[in-house]
Amino acid sequence: MWHRTVFLFVFTLLLSFSGGAQEIAVLKYKGGGDWYANPTALPNLIRFCNRTIRTAINDKPQTVEVASPALYQYPYIHMTGHGNVFFSDEEALNLRTYLMAGGFLHIDDNYGMEPYLRKELKKVFPGKELEELGAEHPIFSQRFQFPDGLPKIHEHDGKRPQAFGIFHEDRMMLLFTFESDLGDGWEDPEVHNDPEEVRQKALQMGANIIQYAFKN
């Protein structure tokens, strides 16, 4: 029964990826963390992508829960927040199946979720580790060039920005951006009062991530 369910999920996923529709979603998770943070971020990123890399993404991102079969409708899922994250065994299995079947998850630490996230990712991929990406990784040289790797958008603890991935057969299926806070840079200008140059870096890096996710 489990294998039949996985087959149906994967079949739905492949249909949605090949049908030409471009939809992305925000991941709603449990644990008390604010999964809904940065409400203007994805709509702004979508508009930037549609304008600069010729995507045709619906400008109203959807919300999807971790255990939902609807997860498989989206080639790109965005996850963010400041606090605790919790995945049940059912949620971990569903997320793992989605990613192994070709889905892509971008987790952007909005500040404070990293220790909780690392623990929960062990449930999703018990045998895999987050691997730090070097500046030569192709995600930094899509439409926009980032020769030094992930840009620093907000200071937080003053640590260097880091990008980590989880891979399956040389395909990166999960990206975790840490000490950068791209999502804050995607938000409306008046939310954080970031200089336009900083916002552009954040949006350009976001567009690279979208482009990479759609191509791989």
Features:
alpha/beta; Rossmann fold; 7 helices; 216 residues; seven-stranded mixed β-sheet; disordered N terminus; globular
How much strand content do the residues show?
Answer: 15-25%
Series of H and E elements:
HEHEEHEHEEEHHH
CATH homologous superfamily (4th level) name:
Domain of unknown function DUF4159
Query: What is the rounded distance between the termini?
Result: 29 Å
Structural class of the helix and strand makeup?
A: alpha/beta
CATH class category: Alpha Beta
How many structural domains?
A: 1
DSSP, total strands:
7
| Separate helix tally | 7
Net shape = globular
Largest sheet: 7 strands, mixed
**Which ranges are low-confidence, i.e. pLDDT below 50, for 5 or more consecutive residues?**
1-9, 11-19
- CATH architecture tag: 3-Layer(aba) Sandwich
What would you report as the Rg, rounded to the nearest angstrom? 16 Å
What's the helical proportion of residues?
25-40%
Description:
The protein is an alpha/beta fold. It has a single domain, classed as Rossmann fold. It has helices at 2-18, 41-52, 89-100, 114-124, 182-186, 189-192, 196-215; strands at 24-28, 62-65, 76-81, 104-109, 131-132, 162-168, 171-178. Helix 3 (89-100) links the parallel strand 3 and strand 4. The longest helix is centred in the C-terminal third of the chain and has 20 residues, at 196-215. The chain is globular and about 40 Å long. 42% of the residues are buried.
